[in-house]
From TrEMBL:
Residues the record lists as binding Fe cation: H111, H115, D303
Free-text cofactor note: Binds 1 Fe(2+) ion per subunit.
Positions annotated to bind substrate: T134, V135, S136, G137, G138, D167, G180, D184, N275
Cross-referenced InterPro entries: ATPase_NBD, Gcp-like_dom, KAE1/TsaD, Peptidase_M22_CS, TsaD
Name recorded for this polypeptide: tRNA N6-adenosine threonylcarbamoyltransferase
A GO MF label: iron ion binding
PROSITE patterns referenced in this protein's UniProt entry, alphabetically: GLYCOPROTEASE
Domain Gcp-like residue range list: 24-309
Protein role: Required for the formation of a threonylcarbamoyl group on adenosine at position 37 (t(6)A37) in tRNAs that read codons beginning with adenine. Is involved in the transfer of the threonylcarbamoyl moiety of threonylcarbamoyl-AMP (TC-AMP) to the N6 group of A37, together with TsaE and TsaB. TsaD likely plays a direct catalytic role in this reaction.
UniProt family annotation: Belongs to the KAE1 / TsaD family.
EC numbers: 2.3.1.234
Keyword Transferase: yes
Length: 334
């Protein structure tokens, strides 16, 4: 059954490859880069080098796991952007070399579009139109999804992404990078109403997450003046309250977006969609409003090539191929 497409993701700090056959994702191999942990964030130069080291093994594992050889491939897909330029270059160059060598077409994929299309890997799949809250380390968007390849951003952050807010707050708490999952973990034992934070309200459906960093820093500074062991003694409550605040900011906008558009199908995507608080509260809110809610499996929340493969499948069907002189884009609109 055809087509068989190999997809490569290298936009940030995961080197990933996936094989899709006739629209079915056969596997999703991910090599994470531990090298960034001690720096408290992704170091672009180190990310590029790690991609270079990992890419052959990751691609081979994806092909082998799917039981296909290079000569079975009908196309090679890669993430064109947005992302770190040096990291993207590794995936783009590898895909070009393979496409050239095998004389098969090349497919370029927008990483943010692919996060949304992760919802088409498994059942249940949303129908069009639906709204997708795409939340990652670099983006916070409400996307109106009209078709597989036709999407419009109707709200977005004007400064930091929500994943960045999670990671920066975690760093202030002394937790290692990436701190989002750790805040989530500690939050599960805490009281979400223990502490209150305030919100910068942006016009329309936009977000602002840059203020929370400073607010959080000053909140902890003042509390530590009263009690130097404040963080250690109250970590779970601090994480639960901060998470509650960030998730409320997201869900308020989702509710407004649904009211404005009249759409009753809501999906979440991107790294922060792995957050338990967001997943649970979206389910509950969906229940209240009678929405159909779509939450991706954990392996398709954070960066992965399965979603790139899914996007590539739709592009292949429409004959949307990239020229061999295509270049990566650090910024790439939907
Ligand atoms: O989509 P992704 O893997 O990479 C980007 O495209 O940015 O998202 C990574 C982001 C990081 O900020 C990470 O802390 C956050 O997603 N993240 C989480 C959770 N898992 C990952 N944030 C909160 N709770 C989680 N469980
Ligand atoms: Zn991503």
């Amino acid at each position: 059954m055809r087509p068989v497409i190999l997809a490569i993701e290298s936009s940030c700090d995961e080197t990933s490859a996936s094989v899709i056959r006739n629209g079915k994702v056969l596997n999703n191999i991910i090599a994470s880069q531990a090298v960034h942990q001690k720096y408290g964030g992704v170091v672009p130069e180190l990310a590029s080098r790690a991609h270079q080291q990992n890419i052959v093994a990751v691609v081979d594992a994806a092909l082998e796991g799917a039981g296909v050889t290079r000569t079975d491939l009908d196309a090679v897909a890669f993430t064109r952007g947005p992302g770190l330029m040096g990291a993207l270059l590794v995936g783009v160059s590898f895909a070009k070399g393979l496409a050239m060598g095998l004389k098969i077409p090349l497919i370029e994929v927008n990483h943010m579009q692919a996060h949304v299309l992760a919802h088409f890997i498994d059942e249940p799949r949303p129908s069009f139109p639906f709204l997708c809250l795409t939340v990652s380390g670099g983006h916070t968007q409400i996307v109106l999804v009209k078709d597989h390849l036709d999407m419009e951003v109707i709200g977005q952050t004007q400064d930091d992404a929500v994943g960045e807010a999670f990671d920066k707050a975690a760093k202030i708490l002394g937790l290692p990078y990436p701190g989002g999952p750790l805040i989530d973990k500690h939050a599960q034992q805490g009281n979400p109403r223990a502490y209150k934070f305030s919100e910068t309200v942006m016009p329309g459906l936009d977000f602002s997450f840059s203020g929370i960093k400073t607010q959080f820093l000053y909140f902890l500074r003042d509390k530590k003046k009263e009690n130097p062991a404040f963080v250690e003694e109250n970590l779970a409550d601090i994480c639960a309250s901060l998470q509650h605040h960030l998730v409320s900011m997201l869900l308020t906008r989702v509710e407004q977006a649904c009211a404005r558009t009249g759409i009753r199908q809501v999906a979440i995507a991107g790294g922060v969609s792995a957050n338990q608080g967001l997943r649970q509260r979206l389910q509950a809110l969906g229940g209240q409003h009678g929405w159909d809610v779509f939450i991706p499996a954990f392996q398709y929340c954070t960066d992965n090539a399965g979603m790139i493969a899914m996007a590539a499948h739709y592009k292949y069907q429409r004959g949307l191929f990239a020229p061999l002189d295509v270049t990566p884009l650090a910024r790439m609109p939907l």
